[in-house]
Structures
1.
Amino acid sequence: MKIYGYGRQSINQEDVDAVLEVLRSDFLTRGPKVHEFENAICEYTGARYCVVVSNGTMALHLSMVALEIGQNDEVITTPNTFAASANCISYVGGTVRFADVDSETANMDVGEVKKRVSVKTKAIVPVHFAGQSCDMESLREIALQRGLFIVEDASHAIGSDYRGTKIGSCKYSDMTVFSFHAVKTITTGEGGAITTNNERLYEKLLLLRSHGIAKSPDMDVKYGRWYCEMRELGFNYRMTDLQAALGISQLKRLEEFKKKRHRIVSMYHDLFSRDSRVAFLKEKDFSCACFHLCPALINFKELAIDKRKFVDHLFDAGLRLQVHYMPVHLHPYYRSLGFKEGDYPNAEIYYSQTISLPLYCDLSDNDIHYIVNTFLTALN
Ligand SMILES: *Cc1c(COP(=O)(O)O)cnc(C)c1O
């Protein structure tokens, strides 16, 4: 039996060759590929600067450290995300505030964000859920009015556009974070990146990525060639050249990935259109998404379908699917901070109805027909 997850990497011969070339070269890490990947991301997104790191979670962490978020600061994010979008705020001692989602897009509702802004709010972390951009113009307006930073969590959204600009261009934000985990649209195995147009933030991110240690030709002359100095309490969040080489190769394939993903999503929409029990998120006019997820929405409660039995049925037919997401505030850790059921009703209703269909480039038309038929059988 063929097994389908909700996402998987697409690796071709060029990807393999790119990694092998590094493996046989002088540098496995801290070589030329890291810089080359960063430049390629700048070129693709239109951002001025890029810092690649070991994964998306560390990219989020560094963004919070670079903005000097700390105790007494509040940061607003969405409950409909992977825990890391909120955890990065907790890492630096900040207070997590959630803004409920819009039911049509499952993205952060701007009206809810407005309600959550206080004198202590320092930043907003919008998540471009499933690949669809949040309403960045409205978020930026709030940020400008209230003096807030914006860090876009674009872990789902490399390749997506917002009002004709690439996500990652930072036209509406201070920094944008990407993840290159194997289930994401392009992959380096594990990996992440931060883009920014702010030189001061860029310099800071570079320092923080590598222990806070600085080294420069000036120092060679002044103190000797061995000299380097630790200026801040940094980390080792570096990406290897092996990963960066894969990233460069994958980025070249992104437009092809975008087309394929778009086609698969359209097929699901068409094939499920004959059954009114299965619905999908709406895409706003300002968005041209490179979809990372294709959530199917089923009102299990109203239809009196047992979701657990439904998922068991799919599992037995080879569909090992996931739900994106259990709202972050309902995880035991966040409950222990005082959050509870009922706090963000739209995210909770969304959670009760969603299940992510398989969405990856190597799915064939036959696979998609099998998946849709299995789904419809499981519903009956
Ligand atoms: C995948 C993901 C992350 C974390 O990225 P990693 O590279 O796995 O650390 C953060 N936020 C969202 C929304 C994600 O989907």
2.
Amino acid sequence: MEGHGLLVGAILLLCLTHTCYGVLFSSLQHSLVVTASPQQGQLLKAGEDKIEVTWQLNMTFPAGSDSAYKSVKVKLCYAPISQKDRAWRKTNDNLSKDKTCQFTMVAEAYNDAVQTFQWTIARDIPTATYFVRAYALDSQGTQVAYGQTTDGHKTTNLFDIQGISGRHVSLDIASACFSAFSLLALCGFFLAEKRRTKLSHNK
Ligand SMILES: *[C@@H]1O[C@H](CO)[C@@H](O)[C@H](O)[C@H]1NC(C)=O
Ligand SMILES: *[C@@H]1O[C@H](CO)[C@@H](O)[C@H](O)[C@H]1NC(C)=O
């Protein structure tokens, strides 16, 4: 009977600390070191350009501090300038409500050696300013540690991505202008041709 209560208690505790309870970002261990290939202020194109990301455990952390890390999720995150006036990208310390990092670049098993991967920017990434953040997750899939390419205030090493829809709009405008120009040219040609025929008829 007692054992049963203990089990329920343990499940409840697990539930409270993991699944049911949103973890606070501010409570995570800042133990991962993450770097990404884009230079500060660089402009990359969605669907075309690649980002190379490297992450590893910060070696100044004592051995075994990563014993709970089971997997790593690397995400593309909105920089503050691209969150302004956009509630749907708002940062919340409660990670179950946080909308800073909406795009997963890679999810893989945790490994304490240096990890590197290349990611072609997905075609659905919108035009915005970004940084990269990696979360270490425990066996429950709960965030326990992180690392990011920018500083705590999210002001350094930010890069820009130009989304495909933005490019399509300018392409559409260009083709509309081209069509209008073609139509004008065609009309001009037609009129000139008509006048020429008229002239030759009058001769
Ligand atoms: C985080 O948000 C979830 C969902 O609203 C809530 O259930 C949880 O209690 C919150 N966690 C903290 C630590 O505030
Ligand atoms: C590693 O962690 C230490 C202690 O928190 C910190 O001072 C140092 O800047 C970190 N190193 C890197 C490369 O982030």
